[in-house]
Amino acid sequence: MINWRKGICSALLITAMIFTACGNADIAGAEDFMAEENAGGPAEPHTKENGEKYRLAYVDYDEYMPASRQFGYILQGLEEYGWIREGSLPFTQEDIDRDELSTKQMYDMLVKTDLGDYIEFAEDAFYYLGYEDEEVIAGELKKRAGEDFDLVITFGTSAGVLVSSLDLPVPMTDFSATDPVASGIIESSTEGSGKPNVWAQVEPKVPQRQLKYYYSLKPFERLGVIVYGDEVISGIPDVEAAAKEIGFEIVKYNIEEQPRETGEELDAYYKMVKGKFEQMAEEDIDAFLFPPDLVNDQEYLKEMFEPLYRRKIPVYCMDDVATVYNGAMMIISATDFENVGRFVADAITKILSGAEAGSLPCIYTSAPYICVNLDVIRRIDYPQDFEFLAICDEIYSEDR
How much is the pLDDT for 335? Predict the structure, then answer.
């Protein structure tokens, strides 16, 4: 495997190219956030007035590795800011990736760990919406909020929507929802959230920014996409906005949500999805956009993409750099996990220190990060001149 990381020159090259492809406004927010963060900084760690630790709960949708990685970086941020004792976390980012730890496994380990004087994770206060009854979860959260925990962390759109709708007496922080405003988690991202007890991390117009870049490398007329479940969660409104702005056609297949828990259900699901990919390859598309939640089990990716690659169709990703290691051609990641983790952790420290959740800044625009699969690029004869490879932050190949 090649894993090449460039220095200052690469950073300047990629910044210049993104400015050219996307326009200055697309990345200006990163500097705005950094100035804002440096001006205030995270709150100093402290206990509750009675000397007790703050207790946290967590709501997720299902087992999804990007959630685990991002949760890990939030914890690292809390450690960096002094709210978690240095060296006390029971896992590293390498452990999360190597052992494929789910957020539930991470949470259970945290419950059993002494994280220092300020924060702990409440016992039996982790919930998966995809595996449990939502009404039961809602009832549990209402019953326990303020008694068993002081703040709820939620991952993604579904969890954020549910917890935001409950009007709990404790604050919540959501991260990694596709569009927190459109989905109703918050009402605004620019003048407070519109909900006093709700904060959500907002990464503006991610699919639009990605597609502008992909199009700038090799223009396409027909873009294929297969959507699982909610189109807002999959970022389709932004994809459609990009299509209108840039001028390409979308060929879209929709798959309704269905059970994917047992082995039999997974086999049936992926057999059906593979058929969709085979159909899509016949649609005369010249690029394919791989969205979140369609194929969560990475070992299935190569066989899914095979019909596309036989026809020299590039596969661009919206989410999770690991998809490139497992067969996708390229991702320009709009999510800088490490600094987004710090951003979310910063909000948590301020909220625990008395700031109204809905008053805090929500927008964080990440610097772009490009990862490509060199094996796929060569196979489908994708342009691979020096200038293109020079701007890539990571070049993956199984052969080296």
Answer: 56
pLDDT in tens, 38-70: 347 899 999 999 999 999 999 999 888 889 999
Q: How many CA atoms lie within 13 A of 128 on its CB side?
A: 13
Topology agreement, domain 8-27+205-334+368-396 and domain 28-203+335-359: yes
Residue with tokens 């690991």: 322
Paired residues of 247 in beta bridges: none
- DSSP 8-state class, residue 218: S
Within 112-253, where are the H helices?
A: 134-144, 156-165, 206-217, 236-242
**pLDDT tens digits for range 174-233:** 998 888 998 899 998 887 788 999 999 998 777 888 899 899 989 999 999 999 988 888
Retrieve residue 144's tokens.
């326990």
Domain ranges of the chain: 8-27+205-334+368-396, 28-203+335-359
Output the DSSP codes for 352-400: HTT--GGGS--B--PPPEEEEEHHHHHHTT----HHHHHT-SEEE-TT-
Res 334: pLDDT: 57
Query: What is the distance between the alpha carbons of residues 307 and 224, in angstroms, rounded to a whole number?
Result: 13
CB atoms within 10 A of CB 339: 18
Architecture of the 8-27+205-334+368-396 domain: 3-Layer(aba) Sandwich (3.40)
By DSSP bridging, strand 330-333 and strand 369-373 are: antiparallel
Edge-to-edge, what's the strand order for the sheet holding 172-175? 119-128, 54-60, 151-155, 172-175, 198-200
> Could you give the CA distance from residue 121 to residue 108 in angstroms, rounded to a whole number?
9
Helix and strand element counts for the chain (H, E) = 15, 12
For the domain made up of 28-203+335-359, give the CATH fold: Rossmann fold (3.40.50)
Residue numbers in the chain where pLDDT is lower than 50: 1-39
Q: How far apart are CA 236 and CA 181, in angstroms?
A: 14
Tell whether the torsion through CA atoms of 271, 273, 278 and 279 is positive or negative.
positive
- In the prediction, which pLDDT does 353 show? 96
How far is 107 from 117, CA to CA, in rounded Å? 18
